[in-house]
Fold each of these.
Amino acid sequence: MSKFRGVSSGRGEESIERSTDADFLLLYGKLPVLVLCHDAKGWRMFYTKEFKAQKKVRPLVQFPAVDKEYRSSELWPFFAVRIPSISRPEVLRTVQAEKLDYDDVAAMLSRFGRKSVASPFELKPKEEADLLLAGTSDRDTQLCDEVEKEVGNERRD
C-alpha cells in the first residue's frame, strides 16, 4: 500500500493491503455518480450512466474524464481520506470490537467511509445502494466484473 495509506494509518509504517473484493457507489444526494470497485487486479472507478446523462453536477476534479475507466493498484486519496486513523481511540475500539482487519482497505472503507465532513458525497457499498435506488429508471446496474467483460469484448473487436 502507498505511503499515504501508511501515514494515515497512524502506525508510522506502510501497511500491506489485504483488501477483499468490493463494489461501492458514490452518491451526490440521490444521483449515482460513480462506481468504485476492488478485486485482485486493484481498484477501478467509472462514472454511472445517470451521471453522464445529467449536466448539473460536474465530474470530480481528480477524475475529469467521464467516459474513462480509471485503474490503480492503490486506493485514490479522494477515497482513502475517508478511512480514519487507527491511532484514534474510538476507531481502534471499533476495529477491535468488530474484529476488523485495519489493513483490509475495502472493509475499512465500507465500515468508515460512508460520509466525510469535507465532502458532500456519500459512499455506500454497492449492494446497499442498489436497494436504495431500486426502481430508479435507466440505472447503471453494472458490477465491476460485468464492466470487465464489456471492456474485454471491445478490445477483441
Amino acid sequence: MMKNKNIDLSRKKNLKSLIEDYLEHNLLQLKDLHQKNPDQALDLFHNVFQLLCDPTDDADDLTPDQLKGAILEWHSLLTPVWKKIRGAFLDYYRNVLSERDNRLKMISAINDPSSPLAEYKDVFDEYALSSDEKTFSFKIPRSPITITLSFDSDKFIISMEGTRIIDRLLLQLKDTPIDIFSVCGHCGKIIIVTRKGKRFHSGCAAKANQKEKWQRDPEGCRQKERIRYRQRMKGI
C-alpha cells in the first residue's frame, strides 16, 4: 500500500539488507551464501557491519574472515531480539490489523443512517468501539534487558535499552513505517517493500510461479518434467 512516502530509498535498502537478507536467514544459510557466492556475501556483510558497528569502526579495516566472523557472531546475538520483534509484527500483521478493520467497519455502519445498526448509535459510540493499540513487552533471554514496542500510528514505537549492537538494531527500526514491511507470499519470511507491488522474498517469485503452474495444470507439468528428464538422459 506504500502510504508512507517520507522514508527514503536508501533507508529501505538498508533495512532490506538488515532484515530480509540477514536476520531472516539462519546461520547455516549465511554460511552457505558465503561458500557459494563469497562476493555477494561479503557485500552483504559489509553493508550490515556499517549499519550496526560503532561509528569509529570501518568494515574496510577488517579482513574478509574477520568481517565474516563479526557478522555471524552478531547474528547469534541479534536473533533472540529479532525473533521477539518478528513475532510481535506477525501478530500485528495477522490479527491487530484485521481487528482494527472490523472495528472501523462497525463504526462506519453505526454512523450510516441507512444501516440496520444505525438505531443502536445511542448505545454505542466510537469510544466504546475503539481499543488501545496493543503493546508488546519482552525480556531478552539471559539478559536484564526488557524491550517494549507497539505499532501505534503504523510505525515501530520502541522503548529500548541494552547493548550497543542491540540498540543500533532497534534504532534502525525506530519510527519505520509499517507499510514497508510485509510477508512473503511463498516462504512466509518478512520482506521489505522496496518497490510497489513487491510480494515475494528474494528468489521466491519463481518458486511461487512454479507452484501456481503445478496447481493449475499438474498433469501438464508432469509431462514437461518427463520430457526434460528424457532429454537429459539422451544428453540433449
Amino acid sequence: MAVGTARGRTTILGRFVGRPAGRLFAHFLKESGTAAGIIVWIGIGIVLAIIVMAIFAPFLAPFDPNTKVADPETAPGGRFVMGVDRSGQDVLSRIIWGARIPLAIIAVATTISLAIGLPIGLLSGFVGGRLDRILVLVMDSIYAFPGLLLAIVIAAIIGRGILNISVAIAIVYIPTYFRIIRNHVAAVKQEPYVEAAIALGMPRRRIITRYVLPNVAQSIPVIFSVNAADSVLTEAGLTFLGLGLPPGIPDWGFDISLNWQRFEASWWATFYPGLFILILTTALTFVGEGLNDILNPLLRKKDFKAKVEA
C-alpha cells in the first residue's frame, strides 16, 4: 500500500514537472541557491510578511485605525510606536490595516491584465495578418500614454473604489503583457517544430497550448511581479490625488496625502506609510528582477559566456 502511494505521488510529481509551470518551478528551485535566487527569496519573504500582517490586522493592530486615540501629532513613543497623525489616529494601526488595499489591488489588477493580455498576445503573434496589425495599433496607442496619467484619467471617469482602481491599473498593464507575449510568440512561430506542426495540419489551438505557450511562459512570472510592484506606486499615486478610495478606509497613499503638509511638525505620519510603500515595491521588484535572471535564457547564455571567457 505504501509502495502504491509512493508511486502515485511520484507520478503526480512527474506530471507536474512535465508541464510548463512545473518545469519553471523545477528550474527555479535548481537556481534558488544563486545570487538571483537569494534575491527572489528575500523578496518573497518580505511580501509574505506583509500578507500575514494584512490578514491578521485585527489581531496585530493595537488600535482601531479610524478612531482618535490621542492628541493629534503625538510623537512616537510609549503606546504609540510610530506616533499619531494629525487626526489623532495611531499610525502603526493604519499601516497594518492599510496593507490590505495595495495587496488586494495587486491581486485584482494583475489578474485582469494577465487574463486579457496573455490570450490576445498569443492570438496576435500566432495568427498575424490584419488582426495582428489592428491589435498592435490599439495596444501601442494605449502604451503611448504615461501609465500614471492614463490611470488618473480612467479613475476619474469610472470613480473611486478598490475594483475601479484595479480596473484602471489593469488597463494600463494589458499592453505590457500583449507586447512581450506577442513578440515571443512571433519568434517561436518560426521554430521548425512549430512549422512542422502547422504543416501536419494540427489544430491551431493545440499548437498554441502545446508548443507555443510553454516556450513563452517564462516571461509571465517576471511581467506579473514587475507590474505588481508598479501597481503599488500607481495605487498610492491615485489615492494621494484623491482618486482612489472613499474616506475612512486606511490606505498608505491616502495617509501621505493627509499628512504631508505637516511633515515638519509630524514627519512620522508621512514617513512610515511611504516607507512601507517603498518596502513592498522593492520586495516585488526583487522577485521580478531575480526571476528574470533565472528564467530568461538569453541572460543565462550571457552569464555562461562571461564565465567561459573569464
